[in-house]
């Protein structure tokens, strides 16, 4: 049966070059291994696989899907780990993008995750992993201003803010690189950055990570390679998004340290004004702009400015765009190009 290739396989050649599927002993399993699993149970709204194109494809019981072992630690949705898979080989699709592991905790507000059965590892000369398809970039220091977008939690409006900021930077005539540096494997967020006009898009999957829940030293090495790839583009500015919150176990705080010397503007998307206060106290950093649901209304904006004296904008409202353009011009300090 022809398998579905989930989006974490987009960096590989699995669709064009032969391979075999073989069950491996448990002591050979690791994060980032490409594996084939069979869909179990009756199809629900969560039985969707994000393909390498970014399109969502429905799957049915008995279908085969290739993804990668990994870990997820979402505070709002679900938690899971490939290391929690039992002897029966039962597991879940922790994201639609092909992050596979055993769900250990899930919000009651979410539909049940897709159930799966481990069939085997993708093997050639030994097992095949995501890292097999990551090339080492020529080391190069990042020499462009960075606009960093962080959130008080997942689903706080980071990607929406990023899209709008990218759109305005393109209107200013700049070449934009956009990347998602922390989170769990899915392609749709950075594809939306490309749709907004980004000239180059990257994420941690390009660095060989199915999610960024991993040892900090592994995350740092992979991210430094990714930053070198970005530095070798012709971009004028980098929009860097951290999935979830820097306080969650996705190595967001490590990414912030790697980017801080190039940081020109810090944008915080928050669910409410008090979350803004919590992030500022946790990191000792004062954002340059607050976006997201915390800034949905005049009351929220007024409370943020009263509590913290920080500019807050509801970016989905057109009347906020002149203020956004002014802030971008002040912080990135790049000449606007004609045309």
How would you characterize the overall build of this protein?
The structure is a single chain. The chain is of the alpha/beta class. It folds into two domains: 130 residues, no CATH class; 187 residues, Rossmann fold (3-Layer(aba) Sandwich). It is built from seven helices and 18 strands. The longest helix has 16 residues.
In CATH terms, the superfamily of the largest domain is: P-loop containing nucleotide triphosphate hydrolases
Most strands sheet: 6 strands, parallel
Overall pLDDT score: 90
Computed over alpha carbons, the radius of gyration is 20 Å
In the CATH classification, which architecture of the largest domain applies? 3-Layer(aba) Sandwich
By CATH reckoning, the class of the largest domain would read Alpha Beta
The N- and C-terminal alpha carbons lie at a distance of: 51 Å
Helix content: 10-25%
Low-confidence stretches: none
Q: Major sheet: order of its strands?
A: 15-14-16-13-17-18
Instruction: Say how many strands there are.
Output: 18
**CATH level 3 topology of the largest domain:** Rossmann fold
Q: Per the principal axes of the C-alpha atoms, what is the gross shape?
A: globular
- Percentage of residues in strands: 25-35%
Number of domains: 2
Structural class: alpha/beta
Pattern of helices and strands: EEEEEEEEEEEEEHEHEHEHEHEHH
Note the total helix count: 7
């Amino acid at each position: 049966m022809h398998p579905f290739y989930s989006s974490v396989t987009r960096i590989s050649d699995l669709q064009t070059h032969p391979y075999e599927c073989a069950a491996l002993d448990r002591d050979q399993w690791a994060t980032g291994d490409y594996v084939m699993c069979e869909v179990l149970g009756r199809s629900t709204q969560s039985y969707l696989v994000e393909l390498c194109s970014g399109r969502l494809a429905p799957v049915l019981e008995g279908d085969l899907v290739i993804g990668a072992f990994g870990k997820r630690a979402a505070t709002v949705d679900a938690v899971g780990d490939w290391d929690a898979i039992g002897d029966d080989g039962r597991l879940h699709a922790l994201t639609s993008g092909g992050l596979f592991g055993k769900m250990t905790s899930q919000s009651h507000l979410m539909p049940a995750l897709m159930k799966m059965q481990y069939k085997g590892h993708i093997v050639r000369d030994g097992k095949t992993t995501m890292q097999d398809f990551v090339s080492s970039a020529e080391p190069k220091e990042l020499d462009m201003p960075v606009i960093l977008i962080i959130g008080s939690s997942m689903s706080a409006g980071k990607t929406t803010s990023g899209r709008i900021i990218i759109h305005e930077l393109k209107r200013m005539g700049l070449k934009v690189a956009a990347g998602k540096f922390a989170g769990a494997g899915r392609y749709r967020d950075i594809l939306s950055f490309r749709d907004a006009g980004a000239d180059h898009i990257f994420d941690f999957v390009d660095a060989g990570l199915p999610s960024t829940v991993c040892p900090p030293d592994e995350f740092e090495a992979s991210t430094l390679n990714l930053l070198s790839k970005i530095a070798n583009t012709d971009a004028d500015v980098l929009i860097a998004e951290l999935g979830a919150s820097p306080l969650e176990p996705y190595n967001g705080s490590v990414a912030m340290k790697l980017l801080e010397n190039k940081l020109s503007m810090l944008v915080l998307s928050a669910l409410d004004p008090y979350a803004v206060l919590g992030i500022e106290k946790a990191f000792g950093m004062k954002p340059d702009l607050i976006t997201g649901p915390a800034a949905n209304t005049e009351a929220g904006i007024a409370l943020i400015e009263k509590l913290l004296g920080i500019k807050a904008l509801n970016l989905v409202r057109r009347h906020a765009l002149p203020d956004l353009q002014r802030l971008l011009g002040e912080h990135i300090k790049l000449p606007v190009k004609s045309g």
